[in-house]
Give the backbone structure.
Amino acid sequence: MASAPSSNDTDSGVGLHLPDTTRELVKILVAGPFGVGKTTLIDSVSEIRPLHTEEHLTEASVSVDDLAGVRDKTTTTVAIDFGRISLDAGIVLYLFGTPGQERFRSLWADIAHGALGALVLVDTRRIDDSFDVLGLVEESGLPYAVALNTFPDARSYTADQLRGSLDLEPGTPMVVCDARDTNSSIDALLSLVQHLIAGHAEGAGPQYGDPVTW
Amino acid sequence: MTGRRSGRPLVPAYLSTGGVARPANTELERLSLLTGGTGTAPDGLPAARHALFDVLDGGTLTLVEAAALLELPVSAVRVLAAELAEQGLVSLRAPVPQAALPAPDLLKRVADGLRALKQ
C-alpha cells in the first residue's frame, strides 16, 4: 500500500516531473460531448500520453465518511483526460477534456477554475449533442472558440448554417479541425488564443477565476 | 473518455485521507505545483501520504498529475498535499504568479509557443 505505482515507467512519476524552469501553468478546456474527439485532439498535441483522473460526480457533496458507508453501491464516476504541452519561456499548457452534459455541471465549475478559455469540439453529424456544452461554457463565462471536428461521412453545411444552428455570437471563432492531426489541432487552439488576445484588446478580457492567495 | 484504468487503485479513496473530507488549505487547484522533499519519508507516515511523497520523488508534479498517477480523486490528493505541506514534506506553489494576471503578455507567449510547435 505504501509504495508508489511501479507497473512501468510511464505510470511512475519519473519522466513526468516538471522541469525547474517551469514558471507558469495554464489551462485550456477541450469541451464537447462523448465521442466527439476530445481525447484524440489532446493526444495529437500532448507531450505525455494523456492521463486521466476518475471524478465522482457527487464528490462535492459527499464526505469521505459517507463514501465509506456506500462503497458497495454504484457511484457515478467519469474519467477526465488531460495532456500537457511545454511551450517556450517556461509556460506549460494543460488541456483538459471536459464532457458537456448538464449532469457534469458541478465538475465543470471545478475544472474551469482558472482556465484561459475553452475549445468546444463539435461533430457536425450530431450538432444537437453540443447544445448542453455550449450552455455550460457560456454559463461559466469562459471565452471560447468552436472547432468542427471533421468526419468523412458528415454532410456539408455552410458556415452560416452552422453558426445559426449553434447560435454563435458573430465574434466567436469557428474553425474546421482534424483532431487527429497535430498541426490542425494546434491551429484550432491558436484560433482560441487569438480570440482571447483580441478580447483583452477590447477590454473584455477572459476570466481567470478567483485569485490564488496562498 | 478513453483509457480507463484496469485493476484497483493503490489506496481506496474512502481510506486515503484517514476520514478527512476537506483540506485545511482550500486554495489547492488542479494545476497547483507540488514539490516533494528530498530524502526518505519519516517513519509512521500514513500509507496514502507516503504514496504521494514517493510519487513526487523529490521532484515537481501538478496536483492533477499526482492524482492520476496514484489513481486517487483530485479531492483526496488535495487533502493529502495539504497535510504533507503542513508537515513540511511538500512545498506548494500556485500555477501562475499573481503578478502575471491579468495577462495579455502571457496569452501572447502561449500563442507564440503554440506556433513554434507546428511542424
